[in-house]
Amino acid sequence: MDVSHAANAAAAPLGDAAVIAESWHEPELFAEIFHRHFAEIHRYVTRRLGPDAADDIAAETFLAAFRRRYRFDPERGAVRPWLYGIATNLIGLHRRAEKRFYRALARTPADDVTYDHDERVAARVTAGRVGAELAEALAGLSAGDRDVLLLVALADLTYEQVAQALGLKYGTVASRLNRARRKLREALGGVDPTLINEESS
Q: Are 161 and 81 in contact (CB under 8 A)?
């Protein structure tokens, strides 16, 4: 390896898993994980609980991840599903708030949704996609089915990544997603919701 190649290799940014491993000995390095993924996790929480709860839940996600960083196993997968799993578990402590958010969204015309927040554009898009019937149907899903559905639809995770995030078997993810989609189709008169991303496997 020549000197210039070695310098380029040294300058290349560390991957997420390597950053976490390094942070075991240099905790301040974990800030890089926060900078890389906070906005994405914040958007996800906003779309599930609304902007009022998003700041706190997203911050709690990274605090929990920092405290659990010694337990992160890169052999089990990437950092994103791990973070989404933590966020989803924290959202689980706010199930009533999530149902209230979707039911309020079902009653609110998309043009009336305004947020004094950096996520207002994403929230408007979500409100536009989620019509009244769909919002009400999402509120009516079981917690486990809704978690799987929204990790695929909002976080764009694959079935395998959802399984990793939630500690489920692949088949359980598939069956929950199928059940959730069937219930939504029934609620929407047979229409397949366009916010669901079909995984090609």
A: yes
Q: How far apart are CA 171 and CA 174, in angstroms?
A: 5
φ, ψ at 6 (rounded to 5°):
-65, -40
Per-residue pLDDT tens digits for 169-195: 999 999 999 999 999 888 887 766 644
Residues of the chain with pLDDT under 70: 1-11, 109-131, 191-201
* C-beta of residue 27 within 8 angstroms of C-beta of residue 20: no
Q: Quick one: 105 exposed, middle or buried, by C-beta within 10 A (0-12, 13-18, 19+)?
A: buried
Q: Report how far residue 70's alpha carbon sits from residue 62's, in angstroms, rounded to the nearest whole number.
A: 14
pLDDT for residue 128: 45
pTM listed for this prediction: 0.78
Contacts of 104 (CB under 8 A, 6+ apart): 50
d(C-alpha 157, C-alpha 160), whole Å = 8
- CA-nearest of 47, 71, 68 to 57 is 47
Question: CA-CA distance, 198 to 99, in Å (whole number)?
Answer: 24
CA–CA separation, 139 and 151 (whole Å): 15
